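Chain A, query sequence.
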Amino acid sequence: MGKATAEALAAQGAQVAILDREGSNGKEVASAIGGTFYPADITDFTGVEETLAAAVTDLGGLHVIVTTAGGGTAKKTLGRGGPHDLETFRQVVDLNLIATFNLNRLAAAHIANNEPEDAERGVIINTSSIAAFEGRSGRSPTPLQRPASPVWP
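Chain A, predicted structure.
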C-alpha cells in the first residue's frame, strides 16, 4: 500500500520522502520514483520526530502525509499455553495507535506552518486494515499492513 501510494504521488509530480524501517524495500522504492529514503522505526517516538523533521527540511515543507505503518499478531486471547501475553499486545498498540497518533501530531505541527492554499494548509491521511472488522474467532483484532509512510510537500 505504501509503495503504490508513493508511486502514485510521484507520478503526479510530488516530491516523495519514504520513512520506513532500515531493512525494508523503502530505499529501492524511493530510488525508483526519484524520492528520498529516511530510515525510521515509527515506534521510536523521539527518533521518528527527528527523522520527520529532517525530511521536511530537505523537502522544504510538508503538505500531505500518508501513514501506512501497521502490523499485528495472530495469537488467541486465550490459548493452550495460557492468556495472550501483554507485551505483544502492547507492541501492536504502540505500532498501530500510538505511533500513528504521534506521527499525526508531528505532521500537523509542520503543516500548520504552511500558508493556506484554497483555505487548506495540508492533509493527513491514515490507512488501516480490514482486519479490524474481520477478525478471527478467539483472537484480539489487530490491523495487518506493511509499514511505510510517504511524505511530500
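DSSP finds four helices and seven strands in the chain. The radius of gyration is 17 Å.
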